[in-house]
Design goal:
Elements lengths: L1 H16 L13 E5 L6 H17 L3 E5 L6 H9 L6 E6 H6 L10 H4 E10 L2 E5 L7 H10 L5 E4 L7 H11 L4 E4 L3 H10 L4 E4 L1 H9 L3 E6 L29 E8 L4 H15 L2 H9 L7 E2 H22 L1
Parallel strand pairs: 1-2, 1-3, 6-7, 6-8
Antiparallel strand pairs: 3-10, 4-10, 4-11, 5-8, 5-9
Helix pairs in contact: 2-10, 2-11
Amino acid sequence: MKSIRYLSVLALAAVMAAPLPAAAEYPDRPITLIIPLGAGGSHDLHARGITGIISDIIGQPMVVKLVPGASGMKGTSEAAKAKPDGYTLLFTHNAFDQLRPQTVDVPFDPLKDFTTVARVNFGQPILVARADRPYKTLDEFVAYAKANPGKVNFGHSGVWGATHIPSVQLLKAADIKVNLIPHKGGGPLLRAILSGEDDIGFLFTTQTRPHFKDGKVRVLGVAGDQPIPNDKDFGDVPTMASLGYADVAFTMDRIFMAPAGMPEKDLMMLRDSFEELMDNKSFKRFIRSIGENVMFMRGEEYDKLRPGRYESYTDLIKSVK
């Protein structure tokens, strides 16, 4: 009996002395990518190409989870509550990150509870109308809306979202009255315009292009004072500034974010992986196929801009109310 107990003690000592297994390197399981928008919008279209390629770079699948609702705040809140271990990321834009939280009570502080992984590019909203509507230019639209107050259905992607902002900027600058109709993202907005439920609205080139080529919609202007660079379909579209509406100037940054508190070495690995993505031939081919450009910025650089942007959006909110 003593020998048995002695052997048991030796066995236990051997187990305790054995080296612990090395901690798994991040990531060792799939990553969930929350998009706080509906299907069919420019974020959804970007994610379809990006996730497959970045998954190969990081060695684990990146699985898209669409969480529309509350003008982007439902999905953003879900991401904010996630464990900051790098296994839940957010693919969002600057209006949802820095503007919308200033207009509604949210259970997070955007500047404290999120950190940026990368900005992949930015989009300039373009004013899109059904091709069968009786206006072919912005001036004709404004004249029609003034002659028919409250009869135009003007859609947008959600209150204080990326296409709501230039919409209210234009309505204020042109002094016109329309039926301003919210949707759960750019995809539902596009479908509403194509179906005739809405007459007009701001969209992005990615989702507009095939319907423009099919002659289903026409483009009346691009937000801001710069034309869309190197775009064979929309490069000649006049800017809002050139048409007399310099205040219609909002642009949308497409940004990948993580809950704050993620281990620094894992965050740096993600940032490095997205920088590697920018030079990937498959990614460049995909971006060209949807008619977009690469305008990359590392997360640490973008985070330096966010506080100033937050303050500028405070002024923007006041100006359009």
